[in-house]
Amino acid sequence: MLGIGTREVSGITVLDLKGSLVAGIGVEAFAQVFKQLVAEQRTRVLLNLKDVSVIDSRGVGELVASFSSLKRSGGSLKIASPSKFVREVLQITRIGTIIDVFDTEEAALKAFAV
């Protein structure tokens, strides 16, 4: 199960994810949220992953797909506060080579200004 909270911080859409970003309903809901954001031209997005306990290959694939969708729309995606397990998966899959990953939400938000 994946919970998705949405808030705005200085023109940046922050998605607070909670639970498991794995194949199934959670990943499908995540994909739908991104389609809606792009449709609304909300293309500066920060994923707060501090409460995501598990991510699988489908979740990683959806991160890449979301990043690509935002980039095509002239936007950007950043990841903040991944849990230890999620950080390990992101390192193994080398996601950090295409999506910026930050230790804190504050650092990620500041990076949008650069």
Architecture overview:
With 114 residues, the protein is α/β, with parallel strands linked by helices. It has one domain: Transcription Regulator spoIIAA. It contains four helices and five strands, in the order ββαβαβαβα. It has a five-stranded mixed sheet, sandwiched between helices. α2 links the parallel β3 (44-55) and β4 (76-80). α1 runs parallel beside α2. The chain is globular, with a radius of gyration of 13 Å. The chain starts with a strand and ends with a helix. The mean pLDDT is 94.
Please supply descriptive tags for the structure shown above:
114 residues; alpha/beta; Transcription Regulator spoIIAA; five-stranded mixed sheet; 43% helix
CATH fourth-tier homologous superfamily? STAS domain
**What's the structural domain tally?**
1
Indicate the radius of gyration in whole angstroms: 13 Å
| N-to-C order of helices and strands | EEHEHEHEH
Q: Within the largest sheet, what's the order of strands?
A: 1-2-3-4-5
Count every helix, treating DSSP H or I runs of 4 or more residues as helices.
4
Structural class: alpha/beta
What's the CATH first level?
A: Alpha Beta
User: Segments where pLDDT lies below 50 for 5+ residues?
Assistant: none
Strand percent estimate: 25-35%
Label the CATH architecture.
2-Layer Sandwich
| Helical content (DSSP H or I, runs of 4+) | 40-55%
- Residue-averaged pLDDT, rounded? 94
* Main beta sheet strand tally, sense and closure: 5 strands, mixed
> How far apart lie the N and C ends?
35 Å
Number of strands: 5
Overall body shape = globular
User: What is the third-level CATH name, the topology?
Assistant: Transcription Regulator spoIIAA
